[in-house]
Amino acid sequence: MKLRTIVVSVVVSSLLMGAQAFAHNTVFGPTGLILNPTAGVIGRGQYSTQLAYYREEPTSFELRAWSLNVATGITDRLELAVGVQDAKVDLTPGGTFFDMTGISGGLKYQVQAESGNSPAMALGVVMSNVAKQAGVYAVWSKSLVSKGSGQNGENDWRVHAGVRYDDVDARRSVTGSDETKVTVFGGIEAPIANRWHFMGEFNSRHKALSTTPFSASLHYRASENTQIFAGIGRIGFSSDTGWFVGINHGFGR
Question: N or C: which end of the chain has fewer CB within 10 A?
Answer without folding.
Answer: N
